[in-house]
Design a protein that fits this description.
147 residues, alpha/beta, Rossmann fold, globular, five-stranded parallel beta sheet
Length: 147
């Protein structure tokens, strides 16, 4: 009986430790409709063990941001469908959503889009090439264990 109780206590302790050490998988929301970049982000997130969801329109992005509370919201600043500048401004005006970290990528020659995104309150803007090159690092940095 002592061995049984000892085994039970050991298993109980292991479950408590396992529960306290649960791996937190960061959620990233991507407002990207470019098929090449969507595929690249999806594949890299999967390899990095990062949970990823896509949203493509302003209402959908706001709803998903509210529901998921992502660690990072990635925008393709050249997207016509997502209306990224207005979406970023709406997020930053909303007290419940303004703390969500935002990152946008854009062609480096579109300085007007870069300026508009910064004026809307985006946290970081990157050239498309730099975003693609640093994608795994960006996704892993969104992890609570890397913050």
């Amino acid at each position: 009986m002592i061995l049984g109780r000892s085994l039970f206590n050991s298993l109980s302790m292991a479950l408590v430790v396992a529960h306290k050490c649960a791996i937190i998988v960061p959620m990233i929301l991507a407002a990207v409709d470019d098929l090449l970049f969507s595929s690249k982000i999806r594949t890299t997130a999967k390899l990095a063990g990062v949970e990823l969801t896509f949203a493509r329109t302003l209402p959908e992005i706001i709803d998903q941001a509210r529901a998921l509370r992502p660690a990072l919201l990635i925008f393709d600043l050249n997207s016509a469908k997502a209306d990224p500048i207005e979406t970023i401004a709406a997020l930053k005006r909303d007290a419940d959503l303004s703390s969500i970290r935002t990152l946008g990528f854009v062609s480096h020659v579109h300085t007007d889009v870069i300026d508009a995104a910064r004026n809307a309150g985006i946290d970081e803007v990157m050239a498309r090439s730099a975003f693609a090159a640093r994608l795994a690092e960006i996704l892993l940095a969104a992890s609570p264990s890397h913050s």
